[in-house]
Amino acid sequence: MRNWLKINLISLTAIIAITGCGVDPKFLDQAQSKLDQLKTQGVPDSLLSSAKVYLYQAADAKKLGKTDLLRTSVDSLKKYLSAAEKFYSEKISTLLPSIESAKNQINSAKMDFSGLQVKQIDSMLAIADSFVNIKWYLQGYNICQEIIERLPQYKIDEEKSRSLKKTIPGDWLCVNETKGTENKAINATEKKIFSLGRDGKVKLIESKKGQSGPYLKEDWEFNSWGTWDMKGDTIHLFISRFAAVRQNFEKIYVEGKKKVWKKETQPTYDSLITDGSQDRYITYSDLKEDFKQIKKF
Question: Per-residue pLDDT tens for 110-128?
Fold first, then answer.
């Protein structure tokens, strides 16, 4: 086996020292560290659970001064830890070829996908590669297997995306009205226009005007620009620019015995967005239910 595949594991027999009075005080802490290390390196919980049980039992026996129970618990702990280490040792020698084989299978299947399906696969492959780079081979292998297990779902998502994507380009309008039943002064209209281009670009115009509550009047407009794509039946909007065109509000304040409307105008701005904070998504069914397509591209 190559040097870079050598396992940096310390044999448990080197740290166990059972005496008539108990165990080396450092042993239980070292066993806990070993369990944590094996878990980090990708050894499944099913192979570590028994060792965890006996570690807890040994710690409890040590605390209560139960020497016989402590001795048997440590023996069992050693047995299960050794089995986990053996699993890791045997698995590691075959993992790199298995990882490469899995990646080849994934990259071949990826040729049938597009858009966000490809981006999601590439994102997970990058995680697998990062694990391999720090020699966490089991975790890298598990990520590759997870991608392979998801390939059928990616295929379903791809088919949905390709089918629905043809009907989406255009201007979509959503109008919501707020009207008071008792307070007739409450009357506000909120509008959203989503312009989704065939070139993958998107512009959103969102505005509201009118008295929306007994103590609030609103008159604002926000514009957003970015790109759009689909994953399955869900439209993802990636916003890279956001502008507050106007932000005018009026609120009621009590002055003596009078209620006075006062304007509170917020500054306008136009900002580039780099952190994804304005990204959104909407399912195709919600788009059809809440919006009306007023123009097709």
Answer: 999 999 999 999 999 999 9
Where is average pLDDT lowest: 5-14, 115-124, 206-215? 5-14
Q: What mean pLDDT do residues 267-291 have?
A: 96
> Among residues 93, 110, 129, which one ends one of the domains?
93
Place of tokens 């105008």: 265
DSSP string, 238-261: EEEEEEEEEEEEEEEEEETTEEEE
Distances (CA, A) of 86 to 20, 43, 48, 53, 170: 29, 10, 12, 19, 60
Residues 8 and 108 both lie in one domain: no
Q: Over 90: is that where the pLDDT of 206 sits? A: yes
All residues at 6 or more sequence positions from 272 whose CB lies less than 8 Å from its CB, including other chains: 240, 241
Among 146, 152, 123, smallest CA distance to 42 is for 146
Residue with tokens 């039992």: 57
Same domain, 221 and 292: yes
Enumerate the β-bridge partners of residue 170: 196, 296
Lowest mean pLDDT among 12-16, 87-91, 153-157, 211-215: 12-16
Question: Which residue type occupies 117?
Answer: Q
Distance CA 225, CA 234 (A): 19
Distances (CA, A) of 87 to 4, 41, 48, 54, 81: 18, 12, 11, 19, 10
Are 133 and 154 contained in the same domain? yes
Q: Please check whether residues 204 and 214 belong to one and the same domain.
A: yes
- Indicate the residue among 93, 112, 131 that finishes a domain: 93
Instruction: Say which DSSP state 277 is in.
Output: T
